[in-house]
Amino acid sequence: MKPRRPSIEDRQGDWFRVELCRIVDPGHPMVKLAQAVDWDRMDEVFGATFCPDNGRPGVSTRLMVSLHFLKYTHNASDEQVVAAWTENPYWQVLSGMKWFEHEPPIDPSSMTWWRKRVGEAGAEELLKESIQAGLKMDAVKTFQLKRVNVDTTVQEKDIRFPTDARLYDRARVRLVKAAKDRGIVLRQSYARKGKALVIMQGHYSHARQMKRAARCTRQLKTFLGRVIRDIERKDPNPDPELLSLLDIARRIHARQRKDKNKVYSVHAPEVECISKGKAHKRYEFGCKVSVAATSRGGWFVGAMALHGNPYDGHTLDRALSQVERIARQPEHVFVDMGYRGHGYEGDVEVHVDKRRRGRTAKSLWRWMKRRAAIEPGIGHLKQEHPNAVDLRLFPGPFAGATS
What pTM was computed for the model? Predict the structure, then answer.
């Protein structure tokens, strides 16, 4: 059911509690932010995701929005945010509390369920409200939204480097564990031999004895195939979870050198291999992300996941549409050479950084040089706020700003 707004009526038991207005500084930025955010609009937007007349009332929308703002601003986990909330009166003011609370307001798992409920559209609303609050507080200037830099990066997934030997062995281990949990007795698990072969394959590769390393890899592939066939014989009608794991294992077992849409991780099969031309890191494993930031101020006004590793130029239209939804339509957008042939035909003037000194107007050249300012912004965003690029998650109020 839609969350109810907390009552502010005094209760007799509150005579012995401390009012937050008596212990906080009214000029503190957190108090000003609490006054700048349009909480009524947040209630209306996120209340639409709840059933109007069934179930118990949900947790306060203002509390959930505030906890997520704080989570991404301080790069903390759900558990850390909820634990720190009981110690910080300014965080409680932002959440709309009247009295200082000594107990956690919710279970940390409620934040996970709330994120799944609101989805990507809700994440955009969080970022949009951050920008609007910045405009009200005069932290974000209106003229800064006229020029925007757009670039792509990779949100990496925490997976081991996907060599064939590791993938064969990891898929076998997961299948053996799944079979054991379901009471399926396998002919052989290859636990001892598989572990030894992975170690030897690494030693041979390090010593550049590639024929011996390839022999170990082939044996690991053979072990995986035997386990797959053994499970298929003894469980012809597997449950959906085991069926999904078997499908991933078959894709790993059948992979060839030049195949497309390979599996690079057993626990995260959606991971893609992306090459961004970095000298120190040729390949990155994760998801491509489009990021938009203002040329002046470095305020992030857009971020979206780009599944399937599309060409950068073909994503510009979607990126600018998101910027218009979150902030407003810019007048100029500056991109790097990866956006050549973008095909965008909208009202925004697109400037591709071609490095033509002397053949570009001086005023425009100055802004084209500012395009590179998004690069350190992306670095700070990924290093200090890594969850913010997950695309169902966005930076909290002003967390992504760089000067």
Answer: 0.81
